[in-house]
Specification:
CATH class of the largest domain: Alpha Beta
Shape: globular
Bound molecules: zinc ion
Structural class: alpha/beta
Strand content: 15-25%
Distance between the termini: 28 Å
Number of domains: 2
Radius of gyration: 20 Å
CATH architecture of the largest domain: 3-Layer(aba) Sandwich
Helix content: 40-55%
Number of strands: 9
Length: 274
């Protein structure tokens, strides 16, 4: 699927903390891309076991309920693979174990685009962001540089598991504030709502108008009935020198070479991890 002139997407991956996070922020985009033939993978980092105020609920029961709800929502949207990493909900930190688990999935599924939340969002609009959201998003940023993309980072992944490094073409951050990219999801809004309502332990019909309201607001500027907004970062292909270096190289190849010998300009190998 061609997202635009420069971004061709065959595989995409959403990496997020809890079951239902992806449905809230991006299920319209997921449904739209899956319909267009993109192989979508969900990677849910925690087990969702903290998401209840019911004194009769247990963490064990809730974990199973939420995994089933997430699988159902993914099926409705046309998501091909759902990976449950099963770290404890509410206790997530960007430790090396979590980073290795996420980097492993990126190296297995090799997505062209990764979706996650914006880890710089801590509070706003009467809302304090959940620390698991921040931790999961932080892990994703670290996976792009260096965990999933750099050969000598977590070398056991390729030495023992034959998982080669991988870097996506783009990162889509679910935007809380000012998005730079608006995706029109008007024709899949009902699919998104159906997927959200699969999370029966978390939301009910009363929340639908509220969620549709967000999507209307996101679409206003572009005059889409319903939309989802993202901040998008694009990356150079592996091995390609960054644009700045290419410009510099054309202007003054010798000067660049001298600097390189003093190691102030990164070598091609080092560039990959920038
Ligand atoms: Zn969440």
């Amino acid at each position: 699927m061609k997202f635009d002139k420069t971004l061709d997407v065959q595989r995409a991956m959403a990496i997020y903390a809890h079951p239902d996070d992806a449905e809230f922020g991006m299920a319209g985009t997921v449904a739209k891309w899956a319909k267009a033939g993109v192989e979508f993978t969900y990677c849910m980092v925690t087990n969702g076991a903290s998401g209840s105020q019911d004194p009769d609920m247990t963490r064990e029961r809730l974990r199973d309920i939420r995994a089933a709800e997430q699988s159902e929502a993914a099926k409705i949207l046309g998501v091909r693979n759902v990976v449950f990493l099963e770290f404890e909900d509410g206790y997530l930190e960007p430790t090396i174990d979590v980073r290795r688990a996420v980097a492993r999935q990126i190296r297995i599924h090799r997505p062209d685009v990764i979706f996650t939340m914006d880890p710089t969002m801590r509070y706003g609009g009467g809302y304090v962001n959940h620390p698991d959201h921040i931790a999961a998003a932080e892990v994703v940023l670290r996976s792009i540089n260096p965990d999933a993309s750099t050969r000598q980072m977590l070398p056991e992944l390729w030495q023992k598991e034959q998982l080669e490094p991988h870097k996506p073409k783009a990162l889509f951050l679910m935007a809380f504030g000012e998005p730079d990219t608006i995706v029109d999801v008007s024709d899949v809004v009902d699919v998104k709502i159906k997927a959200l309502l699969a999370h029966r332990s978390q939301i009910d019909e009363d929340s639908v108008d509220f969620i549709k309201g967000w999507m209307k607001e996101a679409g206003k500027k572009k005059r889409y009935a319903y939309a989802e907004g993202f901040k998008v970062l694009r990356f150079e292909e592996d091995g390609a020198p960054p644009r700045d270096a290419r410009r510099e190289g054309r202007r003054a190849p010798q000067a660049r070479g001298r600097r390189a010998s003093r190691s102030t300009t990164p070598s091609p190998r080092a560039r990959r991890s920038r």
